[in-house]
Amino acid sequence: MRGWNLISLRIPKEYFDMVSHFLIEQGASGVEEIEENKNVNLLRAYFPDKVRIDGVIRALEKYLKSLKGIFPQFPSIEIKIQFLNEQDWSEGWKKYFKPVRVGSKLIILPPWVKIRPKKGEIPVLITPGMGFGTGTHSTTRLCIKALMKRLKERGGSVLDVGTGSGILSIVAARLGAGEVWGIDIDEEALKLARKNVEQNHLSGVIHLRKGGIGRIRKEFDLIVANIDLKTLWRLRDPMETRLKPEGILILSGILQEDEQKVCNHYLKSRSLNYLETSKDEEWVCLTFQKNGI
What CATH number is associated with residue 43? Predict the structure, then answer.
């Protein structure tokens, strides 16, 4: 039976993003943050059963020990592991995934929650998947807010790199994009994204494809990528190539400590101009604009 290894640990809030980012780098499909009190959050990281969880635990123990060396006040952390099959995980998510309002326009909610949107509010239905965006993570919220700011002309084209649940593709379409392409190398992510696109009745606007950006031959008015740092670094040139003159590039999945490094990397080619940085907790979102012809 296909399932997931769940690593759970309670982390002081000031260290939460550091530990969650480390687990994502170790292969977690995603992480979940549950507030327990004003000082501590429960961190739940989900790993596909194909990942060697014993190696992840050893690396995590070593990392936590290194944090203790840097921050003497860092407490001892108990690591818990359990195996979840697909059905157990799906039922468990319903306890924690609640409607999320982003800005003044959007409300992101699971299909089993029935609420009446406020006047002028745009609903986005998202069935959660293993770590694929539900709007609760800082990087997803940052990208959504950047899309709300930059998608001013209706009918433009958008490329969503690493689409996951399809949430950013759906948001872009809801905000008026006329054509949206979402790409991902993970077939499980795409299955979930297709389901979410269909339940939002956007199959005629959003095109989902498996594979990397190299398979895309179009140019876009806007590209958004909420992915890991290593992939952002590697995809600079392909994303620039597929961006139209004066097109907008939105990047997240970047910790504040890496902001300047990523910004400098993207400005090296001299085809992009820096527009702004937005921040949410320990994460940042960078926005660039490509030079005109």
Answer: 3.30.70.120
pLDDT digits (tens, 9 = 90+) for 97-144: 667 888 878 888 877 777 777 788 888 888 876 545 566 678 888 999
- Look at residues 234, 232, 218 and name the one whose alpha carbon lies nearest to residue 286: 232
Mean of the per-residue pLDDT values of the chain? 86
Q: Are residues 58 and 182 in the same domain?
A: no
What's the full length of the chain, in residues? 293
Q: What is the pLDDT of residue 240?
A: 95
Q: Six-digit token pair at 149?
A: 């700011």
Q: Domain span at residue 152?
A: 135-290
Q: Closest Cα to residue 189, out of 223, 216, 161?
A: 161
* Residue 245 pLDDT level (bands cut at 50, 70, 90): very high
Quick one: DSSP state of residue 248?
E
Tell me the C-alpha distance between 234 and 193, whole Å. 24
Identify residue 125 by its one-letter amino acid code.
Answer: L
Crossing angle, helix 167-174 and helix 187-199, to 10 degrees? Answer: 30
Q: What is the pLDDT of residue 179?
A: 95
| Same-domain status, 284 and 179 | yes
Which H helix or E strand runs over 251? Answer: strand 243-255
Q: At 91, is the pLDDT very low, low, confident or very high (cuts 50, 70, 90)?
A: low
User: How far, in Å, CA of 142 to CA of 145, rounded?
Assistant: 5
Residue 26, token pair as written in the block: 């170790």
Lowest-confidence region among 113-122, 187-196, 221-230, 241-250: 113-122
Would you state the structure tokens that stand for residue 287, as one six-digit string?
Answer: 């926005």
Cβ burial of 276 (10 Å; 0-12, 13-18, 19+) is exposed
Domain boundary, last residue among 63, 95, 127: 95
